[in-house]
Design brief:
With 89 residues, the protein is mostly helical. It has a domain of 60 residues. 65% of the residues lie in helices and 0% in strands. The chain is built from 3 helices and no strands. Helix 2 packs antiparallel against helix 3. It is elongated and about 55 Å long. It holds the Pfam family DUF2508.
């Protein structure tokens, strides 16, 4: 009955349930990659490491933003994965 309160379809009624969960997992991985890229930039020592860190950070940010836009377009939020929080943007 909790699904009615939040307006979320149960798993059986949503044919894209698994795809939504996989998208949310990809978003979590992308967020972690982005955080690692930020860390890498903070500790870059020479010019080559800085250049690489900037490139990696920009790529991680673009991937994370792309996945968030996809989730928003598909109206996917964290409650689809049973996380208990919304991740709407």
């Amino acid at each position: 009955m909790l699904w009615r309160l939040f307006g979320i379809k149960p798993q059986a009624a949503d044919p894209y349930w698994k795809d939504k969960q996989e998208l949310l997992q990809e978003i979590r991985v992308a967020q972690t990659d982005w955080q690692h890229a930020l860390y890498r930039l903070d500790y870059a020592a020479d010019q080559d490491q800085i250049d690489y860190a900037i490139f990696a950070l920009e790529a991680a940010e673009k991937r994370y933003e792309m996945l968030l836009r996809s989730a928003k377009k598909l109206n996917v939020h964290a409650l689809h994965a049973g996380m208990g929080r919304t991740a709407e943007g």
